[in-house]
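[agent] plan:
  1. take the single chain provided in the ticket
  2. run structure prediction with default settings
  3. attach structure tokens to the ticket
  4. add a short note for the reviewer (M.T.)
[agent] executing step 1
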Amino acid sequence: MLRFATAGSVDDGKSTLIGRLLLDTKALFEDQLEAVERTSRERGDDYTDLALLTDGLRAEREQGITIDVAYRYFATPRRKFVIADTPGHIQYTRNMVTGASTADLALVLVDARKGLVEQSRRHAFLATLLRVPHLVLCVNKMDLVDFDPAHYESVRQEFTAFATKLDISDLTFIPISALNGDNVVTRSENTPWYDGPSLLHHLENVHVASDRNLVDVRFPVQYVIRPQSKAARDYRGYAGQIAGGVLKPGDDVLVLPSGLTSRIASIEIAGKEVHEAYAPMSVTLRLSDDVDISRGDMICRPHNAATVAQDLQAMMCWMTDQPLKRGDRLVIKHTTRTARVVVKELLYRLDVNTLHRDETADQLGLNEIGRVGLRVTQPVFCDEYRRNRTTGGFILIDEGTNRTVGAGMIVSAG
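[agent] step 2 finished; step 3 output follows
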């Protein structure tokens, strides 16, 4: 399974690219294609607007832009894919963060005629901030510049220079035409000067198995299973999704926050025992001892435990009109644990275009990013975000409206 998100500026062709992928991989039903063709004709287009496959909201179709994150699924004989089509408008940056937060790969599209623009840089930086392991820069609309390699090379060099400021572990460049399908599913004859793979070939073969942390065992307990039937009266299982590491029956484990130790008696998936489990599988653990464990606790290894902390420093992406200020009181949701939190300090606000740190800032506005210090009322069991995206990430919730107002990535904890 490969999860990938599209990113880039407005009208760079993100939705069209996804539509082309779905069409050329035979992932569409005939009635879906007919509906898109009919809508394109009704709008007066002289071509089939493949962007309509993901832009489903009325406001999106009227304006020709993406507003909300649209998820699409398709598969090839080699791999299954989950696509998050994210918006390019600056006021929907929070939607882009949401779509990219779970992605294994980010596709950043750049218009070959315009080159890098502000939103291209913004989305590339956000992808690296969210620790998306793989980045693909698609130089789109090559058909509008007559497949001139000079335009492609100019964009490639410009982005390579910008990428030196970012933490990118895997970067790939591909010249494409999403509208016509050049280098999307198959190699194009229009780019004989390009000797790399097509986009689909790269997506099918990019190695993601080693991206997840399989060293540090992290199992946040979501639910305690205690059947009420007499036959299963002694059954006690702990259900949840593994956030890191590999678990096997017989492994010694430590429970946080109690510090009690036990051993894994069995691991079950859908009622059947398995010999091992790893992130991100959802399983039920049974321990050899009766230990006091409830939702929000974490099971890990005795000599490799998560950090138990109430003071956090984190990079925060603010997602609501009401600005974040020092002294604000909110609710933090970290893995399966929920607690109250107070904002102790705002260390700086980050300009995502210049990467300049404004240490005089006293608040974070909508879609702004900054580093904050938080104090949690109850200990959380966490890792740095760069080490584990699941145990290093959290959201902040407004207790009055129950709305998610911020997404955070832990930099340090103590």
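[agent] step 4 note for reviewer: The chain has three domains: 2-205, 218-300, 307-413.
[agent] ticket updated
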